[in-house]
Amino acid sequence: CESSTIVTKSWCKASVNPKSDFKITKDAAFLSSKNPKINAVQFKPQNITIKARPGKKIQFKVSYKPAIDYPIDIYYLMDNSYTMKDHKDKLTNQATKIYNALKELSNNVYFGAGSFVEKMALPYADETQHNLNTFINHLSLTDNIANFVKVVKAVQHTGNYDTPEGGFDALMQVMVCDEIKWRKEARRLIIYSTDSTYHSAG
């Protein structure tokens, strides 16, 4: 191979010099849908096939339009140690107000709740401590905000030996656990609520 700038007439006429290009293969119209079996369309185009040469720039336009009532899944992951009691009370007092504010953005908002304290082993905590847990899913995602408030109020607090908590263990569980019931097309938000640092061991 040689650069086209140095090719002379003595070269073979059968040269190959492909051009960079792109082709839009799917460009469905914007779509809002409350039917969970029908996916909303918020980006155009959806699929593009690109053929590019090294160092060559390709430009194409992408459009975005927020779908009406696009699903939002919000999961509250709470530190359940004793020092967080006041924070939990504030959440239950404000939950309905938060829910109503989000309903102005979308009528398809689901809330869920879970808690964590500590790794269930010494030297992090006493395994005989009442209500001690690494992670508990108290409520799978639901649009019943009254039940959300009721469940969060009923959560019992506990304690551990040191200041750091096992929050990252719980965070991983929330992301992968099927019991949370994340919806496939929803925006997924995890509110990680704690007043402490996290353990990095294990």
TrEMBL record:
It is a single-pass type I membrane protein. InterPro entries: Integrin_bsu, Integrin_bsu_VWA, vWFA_dom_sf. GO terms for molecular function: integrin binding. GO terms for cellular component: cell surface; focal adhesion; integrin complex. Keywords: Cell adhesion, Disulfide bond, Glycoprotein, Integrin, Membrane, Transmembrane. The keyword Membrane applies. Its main location: membrane. It comes from the Eukaryota. GO terms for biological process: cell adhesion mediated by integrin; cell migration; cell-cell adhesion; cell-matrix adhesion; integrin-mediated signaling pathway. Residues 1-202 form the Integrin beta subunit VWA domain. SUPFAM superfamilies: vWA-like (SSF53300). Signal peptide: none annotated. Belongs to the integrin beta chain family. This is Integrin beta. The lineage of its organism: Eukaryota, Metazoa, Ecdysozoa, Arthropoda, Hexapoda.
